[in-house]
Amino acid sequence: MGEVQAQAVPASMLTIRRQVFALALPAVGEQLLNTIVGLTDVYLVGNLSPQAAVKLGYGSATALASTGLANQMVWLMTVLFMAFAIGSTALIARARGANDQDGVQRILQQSILVGLGIGLLAMLLTFVLARPFLLVLGTADDVLPQSEQYLFTLAPAFVPAALVFIGSACLRGVGDTRTPLYIMFGVNGLNVCISWLLINGNLGLPALGVNGAALGTAIGRGSGGVLIIGLLLRGQSGLRLQLNLRAEGTIINRIVRIGIPAAGEMLVFHGALLVFTRLVNSIGTVAYAAHSVTINIESLSFLPGMGYAAATSTLVGQALGAHAPQQAEDCAYEALWQGGWMMSLAGLLMVGLPEQLLALFTNDPAVIAAGIVPLRTAGLVQPALAVGFILSGGLRGAGDTSWPLYSRLITTWGVRLPLALILVGYAGFGLGGIWLAMCTDFTVQALLALWRFSSGRWQQIKV
User: 77, 152, 222, 321: which one has the fewest Cβ atoms less than 10 Å from its Cβ?
Assistant: First the structure.
């Protein structure tokens, strides 16, 4: 029976299935390793040793809150890198699909130039705005010094981090998802080793706590930036970076035109997230620590969606460049089928084993107890998240970055925030209400992404 079914599938569909899987799997691995950079910090500061806590003057709950709040600003800066990386992937994929090798090389040159600029901007903004940003979030007095020092330590690493995002996006645009995966192996290796040594002060080194986590992340990401530029200068997957980075306004404008709506989408989301974070902070430090741990666990379930979204962007862009819109659509739906199953299985684990998963990241019983309901709620919404992630990835690969911005604006500010204020401020649902509002937002967003992709209008976008 299985053989008959396999033969019934058209050869072209089998080819697409294998192509999607081969491109997406390394991208999922890259996202996993990228996430582990942050999870390593969460795990180590969440299990701060009693000896280190005495020396540092704070415990694991304060350390978790410090890194969680600081990472709100880290993510805000990272959205700039991700947004312009989307523009680079879309343009390079179109040029590769059209067999325009000269265009591929020129887009690479300008993308790296853009990466340098936004990396420097992120570094300067962090040094200037770290304290005001944390105060706006309502950061507690006992948490503020650690959060601020974390950001100051990490700020110089934003330049090479931007190059990692942009360089990896260019490689994905030509269909190379393996090299970014290998680079993230190196980044993680350094981060894990340095953070393990410095957070609790192992092997006789000083216990630096939160600042040790920042040093590990900064050195790991810095090394990743150096490595990817070295590979591109040598030549990788048909891409070769030239040292003469002369600005070409036309190409930069194309990258920016695609990137700005993507940046706007992410800024709309994170702007609301700041209000959201202040609301969680008002519930208490334990609630925020549980919220932070839950987000980090949920980020693991995002990985198939993010990996398949990256693969979908590449395949849709290349197919449109080759004037094959039906192939672009087939690739997107195949990616949704594969990635959706993976995220649904992750959701089952979150629903069935919340205490065990939370205990992997913190030894604080109060934090574990506070995180059970939020984690189960997050598990239930995984299928909807898969639709939102992967089909939005297809839209971005087509250069249709304005629609995800509009849908994000509607769902985040029109659904999530009002519902959270009602559930927490009036109904007294606490952290569970926060997560119910978030998951409602994700579900509406998935429905809007499905509607837009089904309309086929993205096939007419000019980049």
Answer: 152
The secondary structure of 124-161 as a DSSP string is HHHHHHHHHHHHHTT--TTTHHHHHHHHHHHGGGHHHH
pLDDT tens, the chain, 463 aa long: 333 333 334 447 778 888 888 888 888 887 777 777 666 777 788 788 888 888 888 888 888 888 888 888 888 888 788 888 988 998 999 899 889 999 999 999 999 999 999 999 999 999 999 999 998 877 888 888 889 999 999 999 999 999 999 999 999 999 898 899 899 888 888 988 998 899 888 888 888 888 898 999 899 989 999 999 999 999 998 899 987 778 888 999 988 888 888 878 777 776 777 777 778 877 877 887 888 888 878 877 888 888 899 889 888 988 898 888 888 899 999 999 999 999 999 999 999 999 999 988 777 888 888 889 889 999 999 999 999 999 999 998 888 888 888 888 888 888 988 998 898 878 778 888 888 898 999 999 999 999 999 998 888 888 7
Which residue blocks in 47-154 are alpha helix, DSSP H? 50-56, 60-97, 101-136, 144-154
- Reading the block at residue 424, the tokens are 């927490």
Residue 96 vs residues 82, 180, 234, 237, 369: alpha-carbon distances, Å: 21, 18, 20, 12, 51
Please name which of 67, 80, 255 lies closest in space to residue 151, comparing C-alpha atoms.
Answer: 67
Q: What is the rounded CA–CA span in Å between residue 56 and residue 206?
A: 10
**Which residue(s) pair with 236 in the sheet?**
239
Decide if 346 contacts 382 (C-beta within 8 A).
Answer: yes
Q: Is the pTM of this model over 0.85?
A: no
What whole-number distance in Å separates Cα of residue 206 and Cα of residue 153?
Answer: 16
Residue 27 tokens, joined: 């991208």
What b/e sequence results for 249-272 when a residue is b if at least 16 CB atoms lie within 10 Å of its CB, and e otherwise? eebbebbeebbbbbbbbbbbbbeb
Write down the domain spans for the chain: 10-460
The separation between CA 115 and the C-alpha centre of its own chain, rounded to angstroms, equals: 17
In the DSSP assignment, the letter for residue 323 is T
Measured distance CA(244)–CA(14) in Å, rounded: 43
